[in-house]
Design goal:
Layout (H helix, E strand, L loop, with lengths): L4 E4 L3 H12 L4 E4 L2 H10 L1 E5 L4 E4 L5 E3 L10 E4 L6 H9 L7 E4 L6 H8 L4 E6 L4 E5 L2 E4 L5 E4 L8 H6 L4 E4 L2 H12 L1 H8 L3 H5 L2 H20 L15 H5 L3 H7 L13 H7 L10 H10 L5 H14 L8 H12 L4
Parallel strand pairs: 1-2, 1-6, 2-5, 3-10, 6-7, 7-8, 11-12
Antiparallel strand pairs: 3-4, 8-11, 9-10
Bound molecules: NADP nicotinamide-adenine-dinucleotide phosphate (NAP).
Amino acid sequence: MNDRVCVFGAGSIGCYVGGRLAAGGAPVTLIGRERIGREIAEYGLHLTDWQGTRLDVASDGLRYATGPEAAADAGLVLITVKSADTDAAGTALASVLDDDTVVVSFQNGLGNAPQLKRHLTRQVVLAGMVPFNVVNRGRGAFHQGSEGTLEVERHSALAAFEPAFAAAGLPLAQQSDLRAVQWAKLLLNLNNSVNALSGLPLKEQLSMRDFRRCVSLAQEEALRLLDHASIRPARLTPLPPRWIPKLLCLPDWLFSRLANRMLAIDPLARSSMWEDLEAGRRTEVDWLNGEIVRLARTQGREAPVNTRLLALVRAAETGGERHWRGAALLAELRQAVAGGG
Ligand SMILES: NC(=O)c1ccc[n+]([C@@H]2O[C@H](COP(=O)([O-])OP(=O)(O)OC[C@H]3O[C@@H](n4cnc5c(N)ncnc54)[C@H](OP(=O)(O)O)[C@@H]3O)[C@@H](O)[C@H]2O)c1
C-alpha cells in the first residue's frame, strides 16, 4: 500500500495538517509556493494549538515541492488551495495521479469536491471539512486557534490512512452525509463577507451589533432556503444553527455575556476573505454566499441579502469600498430585502 500523503496547497491548512501528519510519523509531501518552501527549509515547521500543543517538524521531516509531479507517488492527496484555485489544481493533478489515489478536498464551501471530480474522473474524490481555524504566523509557525474534528465523506479507501490521522492527533470523523456538515460550516462562514467588508479584526466586528445583524440576515435567508430544500444543517456549535441568527441580534452587552465562546478570538485575527482582499486575490465569496444564491435559484426564489453581499465583495475585489460602517452595511442589506436593489 502507498501510505504517502501529499498536501496540494501548502498554506495555513495545508502546512498545519501536513505538518501534524509528518510529526505523527506519516510520509508527507507538501506542494506549494517557493516562498513557503524557503521558510520551511530555513525554520522547519512549528505547530501549536489553542490547548498548548507544540510540535516541531525539521525541514528534512517531510518533502517539499513546487510542482504537481511530486504528487505522483502519493496514496492520498489533500487539496488545500483556496476555491479559486481548485480548477487549476484539478487540471494539474489529472495527468499525474494514479487511478487508485484517494483525493480529499479540505476546502470550505460545497462546490470544490464536485469541481475536482470533473478533472479527476478516475480517482476517488471525497469532500472534507476543517472546522478549526489556522493562522500562518510566519517563519514556519502555524497556529490552530479553535477546536474541532476533521470530517470527511465516508469511504472504505480511507481505512488505510485513518491510523496516520489518529497518530497526528487529528482523527478523521467519517460521515455518510457530509453535506449537512458542509452547510452548517457554510452558515458560519457567511460572516466572512461581512468581516471582509468591515475591514476590522473579527473580534471587533463581532462585538458590533449592526455587523452581527448583517450576518444574521444572511443566515436567516440561508436557513429559509435550506428549510425549503429539506436540508437540515448539522450542529457544529453549542447552539443549534437556527438559534445563532437570534443570538447575533442581541444587544452588545448581552451578546458579550452569552457568546463569550464566539468572541474568544485572537484580537488581531481576521477572516481569510479579508486577507484575500488585502492581498489582491480573488476571494471565496462565490463558493460561500454564492452557494446560497445558487440554492435560491434552484427553488425559483431569490436571496437578496446574499446576492448583495456577493456583489459588494466582488466590487471590493476590484477596488470598491472595503471599510463599511455597520449601520451603512445593514441599511444596504435591508434595502436589498425591500427590493430596492
Ligand atoms: N485558514 C483557515 O483557518 C481555514 C479554516 C477552515 C477551512 N479553510 C479552507 O481551507 C482552504 C485553504 O485555506 P488556507 O487558509 O489554508 O489558504 P492559503 O493559506 O491561501 O493556502 C493555500 C496555498 O496554496 C497555494 N497554491 C495555490 N495554488 C497552487 C498551486 N497550483 N501550486 C502550489 N501551491 C498553490 C497558495 O499560494 P498563493 O496564495 O500564492 O496562490 C497558498 O499558499 C480554503 O478553502 C479555506 O476556506 C481555511
